[in-house]
Amino acid sequence: xxxxxxxxxxxxxxxxxxxxxxxxxxxxxxxxxxxxxxxxxxxxxxxxxxxxxxxxxxxxxxxxxxxxxxxxxxxxxxxxxxxxxxxxxxxxxxxxxxxxxxxxxxxxxxxxxxxxxxx
Length: 119
Fold this sequence. Notes:
single chain; 5 helices; mainly alpha
């Protein structure tokens, strides 16, 4: 079931990219580059192609977002059944937390740092 939705999502994404590229912008868009201005004007009218492409792009964008949310909801496990990190499990098994090291005494320097450095 999830694979079918992912395939539909992929097809919608490809269609969305194509519909965006076909829209004419300042440079005429891909439709103008492919000679689409003469053919589309006879089919859709003078401004009809832009309106239809804008509606198609809007619908595809809404479907894309809805499918993205649906895939996320279907594939995300609830927090109660979510698996724990292996690193967290090993840290808890080994005694948990950070290894305890004594704090340096005031005025005392670690042996590998020469006196006067860092002051």
